Amino acid sequence: MIRFAQAKDVPTIHRLICELENTPFEFESFQRNFEKLLEDDTVFMYVYEEETIKGFMDMTITLQLHHNAWIAEIKELIVDPAYRGQKIGKQLLDKGIETAKEKNCVRIELASNQKRKEAHRFYLREGMNCTHYAFTLDL
After folding, report:
1. Which DSSP string do the residues of 72-127 spell out, in sequence order?
2. Over the stretch 13-28, which tens digit does the pLDDT of each residue have?
């Protein structure tokens, strides 16, 4: 079942995000940031739950001038490795697409680290196109 993420979900989501980024993020600051996002009406966070949380997706919807339209951007989409291959990622992505359509978005976008080859195959299989480069600068 897919539902909106809640404050009580932070420990599991923290674990999933730390795994996604291979970084042990400090829990208290992660929790504060998560709770700020829960209050932001441009952010849509969903979990896939069957007894336990097995997947998480975070999406932001913004009005972008270079599209002159509303755009949905998936910030994180992760499925617990123990549950991959069960269409959980597809269901979360479909929920994001449904939400984006409801909010009158003309596009859904995401950036994915170059090393995540399995994720790239998933997004391409789901009909997404690789049309942009993402550039970063650590500060």
Report:
1. EEEEEEEE-GGGTTSSHHHHHHHHHHHHHHHTTEEEEEE---TT-HHHHHHHHHTT
2. 999 999 989 999 999 9
Residue 43 predicted with pLDDT over 90: yes
Residue 25 and residue 48: Cα distance in Å, rounded? 22
CATH class of 2-125: alpha beta
Taking the C-alpha atoms of residue 105 and residue 139, their distance in angstroms, rounded to an integer, is: 31
| Span 107-137, pLDDT tens digits | 999 988 788 888 888 888 999 998 887 788 7
Which pTM was predicted? 0.91
- β-pairing, 2-4 vs 52-64, is unpaired
Sheet holding 2-4, edge to edge: 2-4, 43-50, 52-64, 69-79, 105-110
Spatial CA neighbour of 73 closest among 103, 107, 39: 107
- d(CA 70, CA 103) in angstroms, rounded, equals 8
3-state secondary structure of 92: helix
**Residue ranges of domains in the chain:** 2-125
